Amino acid sequence: MKNISGMNFKSDITIIGAGVVGLAIAAQLAHRDRVVYLLEKNERFGQETSSRHSGVIHSGIYYPAGSLKAKLCVEGNHLLYELCLKHGIGHKKLGKLIVATSDEETGQLQELKEKGQRNGAQGLRMISRSKLKEMEPNVEGVAALLSPSTGIIDSHALMEYFVARAKDGGVEIAYRKKVVGLEKVSAGYKVTVEENDKGEFSFTTRILINCAGLYCDKIAELAGIDIARAGYRLHYCKGEYFTVGNGKNKLVKRLIYPVPEVKGTGLGVHVTLDLEGRMRLGPNTQYVDSIDYAVDSRHKDGFYDSAKKMLPFTEYADLEPEMAGIRPKLQGPGEDVRDFVIRDESDRGLPGFINLIGIESPGLTSSPAIAWYVADMVKNLL
Questions:
Q1: Which residues are CB-neighbours of 135 under 8 A, at least 6 positions away?
Q2: Range of the domain at 243
Q3: pLDDT, mean of residues 278-293
């Protein structure tokens, strides 16, 4: 790796943040005729939001028609399965059942189906109680919506693939490099980086792409954007997970979701399986002021109550705390759902500064489609 610690270093493109989205963009923009740099403040890639989630490949059901979330999720679903098959990335297209536990929820399922179909989600169909029992004998509900294109993925293996592809294309990935200053200059942007205990250094870049996840609003602020006025201020939303033990993982074959709450901050506590077949419940949703990944064992009652409605075989003793993640949401408590922000900030006097703000779920699924989307923006800037 080149030593960039010096004022004279110049980059064509610099990406801030080596989560799954930053890595996907780096892989897409990698080119031997360009100097592309990827900066990450942690010890290695994917240490925050990208490694603390359900690992689900979503189909595009939940998002408002015409939104970036809907468009990029549906495109990303197709692209991810292609990548997995071509490059041997671990995944399973298990399918998902969104389960109604009352007649009122059945009506909501029909609305979800219509929304998903408008978005382009593939193969959605309503399932009767008898068909649900045939497919999942141990799941309780009055009806369900089947999403056959929903699956699970080894997100770490996906990120490793993006890293390898980026490096093969000449991208320089620098860890333990925290961006602490940004300044618009004639050549593009002067980026000031803090390098652990070694002090600071600066370099210039023509194009700057902000994929800083939980800290993307702070990076936007460093560039001089009023994040309150722009609507870029993040709200941290914590989600905890509990594992379901005692052999109960053998009792379902698919991902099992509840009908989401209207204006809910998430999709509800759902049942997921990982590639080894382990079952877990989560995530719940709680807005927090700081980043803390501890799981509060007192929330076990809520998880148990949620699971028991759909999975009557669940016993209280089956549940154990597992992990937590933080979602960088643009909407606060009780507010309407906000879309991804992916935009070049030329109209704010910052041409070539591309912000990705509020990339939460379905960010993992959307990552290869986001990379194509950003690459098209970059093409018009170079």
A1: 97, 127, 146, 253, 254
A2: 96-148+235-329
A3: 94
